[in-house]
Design goal:
The complex is a heterodimer of chains A (252) and B (395). Chain A is α+β, with helices and mostly antiparallel strands and 252 residues long. Helix content of chain A is 17%, strand content 46%. In chain A, a hairpin with a 2-residue loop joins β4 and β5. Chain B has 395 residues and is an alpha+beta fold. Chain B has two domains: 177 residues, no CATH class; 205 residues, no CATH class. Chain B has 13 helices and 14 strands. In chain B, a hairpin with a 4-residue loop joins β2 and β3. Chain B is elongated, with a radius of gyration of 31 Å. Chain B starts with a helix and ends with a helix. The chains are: A alpha+beta (252), B alpha+beta (395). At the A-B interface, β6 of A face β3, β6 and β7 of B.
Chain lengths: 252, 395
């Protein structure tokens, strides 16, 4: 019921947005929801370059991503050769890694949720999070106005008491004109800044405006980062029924 | 006099047991897994960052260093170690584990881990993609000897290191921290998994001839020509301060006990002498009446006690020597009363080791001698001061 209402609201809102250049007055909740679901839609398929830079090395991997809502996701490494075919499959809150070199699929236990995903600064939890921000967090507008030449909103997200989330708080900075996120700060339960995600390179892909580049910077090592740049992205297609299955992992 | 010999004997045995316990604790705390001395990159501990291998950026002659270290005076053996951690998985059952890469041939000369109660087969001398898993970890992971597991980890080049391994055996060290989280493989296998070079290791563990002298060896090791810049040797007392404190504490309380025994011995002697003087009151009165000066009486008694002390100590010495030589070779077997225990990271052996040195012996003899002599001064003075008339009357 809630979803229908929200979807309806979203449709109406989108209709308003596409006809008028200036953003309509919608609630912080709706804005955050749009930001949250922007990269996923109902289903998506894309190819991206993931660049991981640490103190010791910088590596680039090319990955292909399929998703269906927030339930299912499949990410496969296309390059480099050494890791080609390594894949991560998420269904609900379960994650498996497929390792082509040894032809094995291993389940990632929940104790590893905060561990790095594929050596990047993203965690397994980032992949798994089934949560929708609007369900697990209370949203408050903390700032509205110009900053760095753009009219922006700043939202503070605080987890609702029953929410099972890893963050103590998230700060989103969103552009007023097109509801594009600019940056997100993630805090732990002690309100210490743990990481920041910067969004940029806004362009139309798959029929909608998206930030093609996302850069995650860990707060304890600000010289390091993981950058994901989409080179292809399309939304709302039909995925073949066995796309998100363990058996198809092996056969690919 | 009997009191003196017995006291001395007891003191000797107690001191021997105490020293034995300290050495036992030291050995148990270090010889299972740590070794007496370890060489690391100066930044390696406590973080254990995978990239802080010995020598850091510059390749150096690892085998040369190990050989040099092992042939240093006072060192018995040296073995290289590589450390990592990753996921051990049978597919559905995935567990996090610490992984140690060891050289099976050299490791057994330094520590006991690879000899501890193995179910199944031990690791062979060459890298065969086999692993030894701690019994408790194996239980968690649902694996046993002969099973195949996948191990996944972050390799040093940023890629996902993964490979298949066969469980050759399960080890039971007695230390839950090891049995529950450790898997051991050949160090060459681990270097391959972690995309590390041949010369890159995180640690070299060493066994000293005399563990109590370990901290004197580190200086020499640090001067070895083959030792790279980014490396330093540390002894067990620097690496395991808790163990060191525990041993010190036990020793101190032990010595307090020994001190108490000494004091009782002193009182015993005092009592004996007092009685002796009392019984010889008549005799003292007689010789005093005959003209012996109080000074001479004092000296007489003191000489007597000296003589007795020396005799007593001498007998005690011989008895002590006999008992200690038996105990140092056979130990004090308490296994009938005590079960297997583990404490502060050291596994306690129910057979008590006894250790003695000439140093301990002589200091104990000296202190006891002094105690005895002091405790005879009082009675001797008493004897000297007695008025002949009273003495004769009482006698």
């Amino acid at each position: 019921m809630k979803r229908i209402i929200q979807s309806a609201g979203l449709i109406i809102f989108l209709a308003l947005v596409s006809s008028t250049p200036s953003a309509a007055q919608d609630s912080p909740k709706e804005i955050i929801d749009k930001v949250d679901r922007m990269m996923r839609g109902e289903s998506s398929h894309g190819v991206a370059e993931m660049e991981i830079s640490t103190k010791r090395w910088t590596r680039s991997k090319t990955i292909e991503i399929w998703s269906e809502g927030t339930e299912k996701a499949l990410i496969r490494i296309l390059e480099p050769r050494k890791e080609e075919g390594v894949a991560t499959l998420k269904i609900g809150t379960d994650i498996w890694n497929y390792l082509p070199k040894i032809s094995r699929t291993i389940r990632i236990p929940s104790s590893m949720m905060m561990a790095s995903w594929m050596g990047s600064h993203f965690t397994n939890d980032d992949l798994v999070k089934e949560s929708r921000l609007v369900e697990d967090y209370d949203i408050e507008t903390t700032f509205e106005g110009p900053r760095d030449g753009e009219e922006i909103w700043e939202f503070r997200l605080t987890p609702v008491p029953e929410a099972v989330v890893v963050w103590g708080g998230i700060d989103f900075v969103v552009r007023k004109k097109d509801l594009m996120p600019i940056k997100a700060d993630y805090f732990d339960e002690d309100n210490t800044l743990k990481r920041t995600v910067y969004y940029s390179d806004y362009r139309r892909m798959g029929g909608r405006l998206v930030p093609a580049e996302m850069r995650l910077v860990p707060s304890d090592e600000p010289d390091e980062y993981t950058k994901i740049t989409y080179t292809e992205l399309e939304f709302n297609m039909e995925h073949p029924p066995d796309t998100f299955s363990l058996s198809s992992l092996r056969d690919r | 006099m009997l009191a003196i010999s017995t006291a001395f004997l007891i003191l000797m045995i107690m001191a021997g047991i105490l020293e034995g316990m300290s050495v036992q604790m030291l050995r148990n705390g270090t010889e299972l897994f740590q070794g007496h001395i370890q060489i690391h990159h100066p930044d390696y501990l406590p973080g254990r960052n995978m990239y802080d291998w010995i020598g850091e950026m510059e390749e150096f002659d690892l085998e040369g260093l190990i050989t040099e270290a092992a042939s240093t005076e006072g060192i018995e053996a040296a073995a290289p170690r590589v450390y990592g951690f990753g996921l051990i998985s049978t597919g559905e059952n995935t567990n996090v584990a610490q992984i140690s890469g060891m050289d099976p041939e050299r490791e057994v000369d330094v520590t006991r881990l690879l000899n501890s109660s193995i179910e199944g087969e031990n690791l062979g001398p060459s890298p065969e993609k086999k692993i030894l898993v701690g019994k408790l970890l194996a239980k968690l992971a649902g694996i046993g000897p002969g099973d195949e597991v996948a191990i996944v980890t972050q390799a040093a080049d940023g890629t996902t290191g993964n490979d298949l391994y066969t469980v050759s055996g399960l080890f039971s060290s007695g230390l839950t921290s090891l049995d529950r989280s450790l898997a051991v493989m050949h160090w060459k296998d681990l270097q391959e998994l972690l995309a590390m070079e041949d010369w890159q290791v995180h640690e070299i563990a060493l066994l000293a001839d005399n563990p109590r002298q370990a901290n004197r060896m580190t200086g020499e090791l640090n001067q070895l020509p083959g030792m790279p810049e980014e490396a330093e040797a540390e002894s067990w007392d620097e690496l395991l301060p808790q163990l060191k404190e525990y041993i010190e504490m036990s020793r101190s309380s032990g010595w307090i006990l020994i001190l108490l025994v000494g004091i009782f011995a002193g009182f015993g002697t005092l009592n004996t002498m007092m009685m002796a003087v009392f019984e010889r009151t008549r005799e003292i009165g007689t010789i005093a009446a005959m003209g012996m000066s109080p000074g001479k009486i004092l000296i007489m008694f003191l000489l007597e006690s000296c003589f007795l002390s020396v005799l007593g100590l001498g007998i005690g010495f011989i008895l002590g020597l006999l008992s200690l030589s038996y105990l140092t070779s056979n130990g004090l077997d308490l296994s009938a009363w005590v079960m297997d225990m583990s404490f502060a990271g050291s596994h306690i052996d129910p057979v008590m080791q006894v250790v003695w040195t000439w140093n301990d012996y002589l200091s104990a003899a000296l202190s006891l001698g002094v105690v005895v002599i002091i405790s005879t001064i009082l009675p001797a003075l008493r004897a000297a001061r007695m008025k002949p008339v009273d003495a004769l009357a009482k006698g």
